[in-house]
Structures are given as structure tokens and as C-alpha cells.
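tool_call: predict_structure(chain=1)
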Amino acid sequence: MPNKLLAILGRGVQMLDPKADPTDVRSYAPTEDLEICKRDPKNQRLSHLRVRISADDDHPDSIIGGGELNLLAGLVLIRDHHFNYAVCAYGHRAGYLKPDAPSESEVMSRWLHKERLRLNIKVWNRELEFIGPSNTAQEFINILDLAAELGCREVVIVTVGVHVPRAAVFLGHAIAQGGTKYSELSPPVLLRSEEVLLAADPEKWGPRVKQLWASKSFARNWERETIGMRDWILDQY
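tool_result:
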């Protein structure tokens, strides 16, 4: 049976207690469904805050986080399907976590490890740093390179729905750029976290998903996703 890799995309991590040890992976948690971000006054771009602020859908800088939702969907996929490997937020640290915080991959992988799953979880540790941006485009290159290195034939990727259009563009570009390097891989499958959860248990997850989709933060996020794709096309991502 060919090896299969599940990639759970990163959506940010945050400290719950500002007085906690910033170097300790246990001080961080994946982002909630709604996330208040930091706005750059120069270019109006939003970025993660290291310390969590309580969710407020009316806040003008509140968008979709989704780190926890991605992990919950990933857990469903792992339990319902056979995977040899899994990765979470597989890339180097973004600026908000430097210089002393763990990587998103370390935080999210710790969440999976607590579930005592029977598969190999590959972690991108904080010591592994690259020159250049840490973003979804680079994350896909990292994931596909790892899949090829491990001899995987199948790759399944899961992320929140609002992230999927941009993710699909970046995934297609990564595959095209890789050329023959990924020739042994079947076309990767990109899934929406909400759809995975709804298919598994609509009564349990339906209210949460409907609330997320109806939120003002969800609507705001569409603008951000569009800007992200524009910046990528202009080589400003």
C-alpha cells in the first residue's frame, strides 16, 4: 500500500496567558474560529497577535482563525482513513513568533500527539529557519518536498474553507514549479475543514460551522484572501 501524507495547514497560534513562558510550547494554542489580528497602519495588512484577545466578531480586525478547526478536521480524517504521516503548519516561524517562541508546527503537532495516534507526525522545529517569507505558498513547497522524500504517493491537505481558494492557487503553482520532482505523486486533494466535520457529524458540528459562515469575520476574510492572491501575482506576497 502506497504511503499517504496528511497536511493540516497552519492558521496561527497564540499565547493564552501573557505572563506564561514564551519559549514553552505549552504556553500556546491554535487559533480559535474567530481571531482578532494586528493591523499594519502603513499597508493595512493583518497579522497574528502572539497573545490572544477574546473573540469579538464586531471588531474591525477580526477574521477567521481556524487553527483548532483544522486540527479537529485532521483528527477526523486520521481516524477514518489510513495515513502513514501527518504534518501541521509545516514551515518556519512567521515574524510574530520570533525570536523566542516555538513554531506553529510544534504547537499544533503537540495537540495531535496528545491524541495518541498511530502514525508518524513530522514536526518543523523552531531551529529550522529559512531566509524568506513564511506563508502558504512556501508551506506547500515544504509539504510536497517532504512527500516526495518519504516516497508518498498520496497527499491530502485540509484547511478552513475561506482559505481554500488562495490555497488552491498556491498549490497549483507549487506543483508546476516542482516539475518532475513530484512526478510520483498523485494530484493532491484539498479539503475544507468545515465540510470534513459536517460529513462526520452534522448534528455536532453544524451549529458551529453555521455560526462561522454567518460571521462578519468570515465576510472580512474574503477581502484578505483576495488581497493575498493579488500580492502573489504582483510578486509582493
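agent: Helices lie at 67-80, 104-113, 136-150, 164-178, 193-200, 202-213, 216-233. Proceeding to next step.
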